[in-house]
Amino acid sequence: MAETLEFELVSPLKLLVAEPVDMVVLPGSEGAFGVLPLHAPTLSTLRPGFIDVYKDGVLSERYFVTGGFAEVSHSTCTVLVDEAIPGGQADQQYGADKVSEAKAALSQATDAASKDKAVAALATAEVVAKTISLEALT
């Protein structure tokens, strides 16, 4: 029997995925990287992008994440994210909606702290929209 890796995708609200997989490809902040069983222990930040999950040697699922952290051990890959959606739902409209929401929050910000938070959210939303747009070209 081939070895598998326990993959967990966790949001602040709940455990989204917990299943054995062959491989996971993560959007690391320094570039995408694959995780197989017996991977060296690793901690990494994640940029907005797609997580590709492989089972039985084929791509079985995709998730779009807005960023987060990954902890990898020899037998597990745990990904902590603020937001994750099924890859098929991450279309250009989703990106445009994120930018619109962030712009609305910025226009409603009244103090320096909320403006700073809104500016950061807008920057992230623009990266999300650009990432989805570039993915649509491939």
Give short descriptive properties of this protein:
31% helix, ATP Synthase, domain 1, 138 residues, alpha+beta, 2 domains
Q: Summed up, what is this model?
A:
By secondary structure, the chain is an alpha+beta fold. The chain has helices at residues 92-108, 112-137; strands at residues 5-10, 15-21, 23-28, 31-35, 42-46, 49-55, 58-65, 68-72, 76-81, 84-86. The protein has a five-stranded mixed sheet, with no helix packed on it. A five-stranded antiparallel sheet has the order 4-3-6-7-10.
Q: Care to describe what's here?
A:
This protein is 31% helix and 42% strand. With 138 residues, the protein is an alpha+beta fold. The chain has two domains: 5-88, F0F1 ATP synthase delta/epsilon subunit, N-terminal (ATP Synthase, domain 1); 91-137. A hairpin with a 3-residue loop joins β8 (68-72) and β9. α1 packs antiparallel against α2 (112-137). It is elongated, with a radius of gyration of 16 Å. The mean pLDDT is 92.
Which secondary structure elements does this structure contain, and how are they paired or packed?
Elements: E1 5-10, E2 15-21, E3 23-28, E4 31-35, E5 42-46, E6 49-55, E7 58-65, E8 68-72, E9 76-81, E10 84-86, H1 92-108, H2 112-137
Parallel strand pairs: 1-9
Antiparallel strand pairs: 1-2, 3-4, 3-6, 5-8, 6-7, 7-10, 8-9
